[in-house]
Amino acid sequence: MDYYELLGVKKGASDAEIKSAYRKQALAWHPDRNKSAGAADRFKEINKAYEVLADSQKRSLYDQYGKDAFERGGFNRASGAQQQQQQGPFSYTYSSSGGQNPFEGVDFGGFSDPFDIFEQFFGFSNAGGGRSRKRRDVYQMELSFDEAVHGVSKETVIKGKNHTIKIPAGVDDGMRIRFEDFDVMIRVRPDKRYRREGQDLYIEHTLSFPQAVLGGEVKIETIDGPITLRVRPGTESGTAVRLRGHGIVHPQSTQKGDLYVIYKIKVPEKLSHKARQLLEELKRELP
């Protein structure tokens, strides 16, 4: 797959857009968060794409020659007088008709460990990943849902020393934050109001039968405070309303996920005689 397509950006994307796209894709496909088949391979490809497109020289070569410039075996498509070169583990040919080696000064030392790129970019990682690394002490910290969403500072004692642990807003259960000589494993207690999927939130809101039929306004609690939504007449049970940017912020970023409001319709179990008459009349009026 094309590197731009992997990150979800256009060819002329700015450096900031590439970083933002990488942040979103890396979080979505990290194998400790995404258990679908092929997630690990997709995560590695995303990191390859970022490593190339974030480097101006490599990006320029990619735009001209595509993946061949960075795949083992190089490429054989250059025109004109060609020369065979070896750069690290890569061999390639290039046209000398212009009098200049297009690969001069470019580091072809192979791709970096994708998990190391992830940790350097975010300052934390999800635990696991099946990788061997130098052993670090890991301490577990339990957070409430609100603490994880908005961030928090906690005082603790580790190995006899006082530490202020600053947790960035938006961390999720299972994330591991790196400090100088130890890691902190995050555990987040579930919330009764919201169901969390990554940085997106889902909340159910019950509509009365008249509200569903006639429409109206309802107040929804978001993590940043209440908002008012207009309910369309004839809303069916299970209808989902997407509120962009009302989800959880990505750690160390200003971008937010979305909030999905799922409407459930409450049908009254008991009716007064008058209410039953009105519904019977409504039944005759409806097509």
Task: Explain this structure.
This protein folds into 3 domains: 3-114, Orthogonal Bundle (Helix Hairpins), CATH 1.10.287; 134-188, Sandwich (HSP40/DNAj peptide-binding domain), CATH 2.60.260.20; 195-285, Sandwich (HSP40/DNAj peptide-binding domain). The chain has 8 helices and 14 strands. The protein has helices at 3-7, 15-29, 39-53, 56-65, 114-122, 145-150, 209-214, 273-285; strands at residues 82-87, 90-95, 124-126, 137-143, 152-158, 161-167, 175-178, 182-188, 195-197, 200-208, 216-222, 225-231, 240-243, 259-266. The strands form 5 sheets. The chain has a 4-stranded mixed β-sheet with strand order 3-7-8-4. Strands 9-10-14-13 form a 4-stranded mixed β-sheet. Strands 1-2 form a two-stranded antiparallel sheet. The model is unreliable at 72-109 and 127-133 (pLDDT under 50).
Strand content: 25-35%
Q: Please, how many domains?
A: 3
Spatial strand arrangement across the major sheet: 3-7-8-4
Helical content class: 25-40%
Total DSSP E strands:
14
Notable traits:
four-stranded mixed sheet; HSP40/DNAj peptide-binding domain; 3 domains; alpha+beta; 287 residues; Helix Hairpins; 14 strands; 28% helix; 8 helices
Provide the fold topology:
Elements: H1 3-7, H2 15-29, H3 39-53, H4 56-65, E1 82-87, E2 90-95, H5 114-122, E3 124-126, E4 137-143, H6 145-150, E5 152-158, E6 161-167, E7 175-178, E8 182-188, E9 195-197, E10 200-208, H7 209-214, E11 216-222, E12 225-231, E13 240-243, E14 259-266, H8 273-285
Parallel strand pairs: 4-8, 10-14
Antiparallel strand pairs: 1-2, 3-7, 5-6, 7-8, 9-10, 11-12, 13-14
Helix pairs in contact: 2-3, 3-5
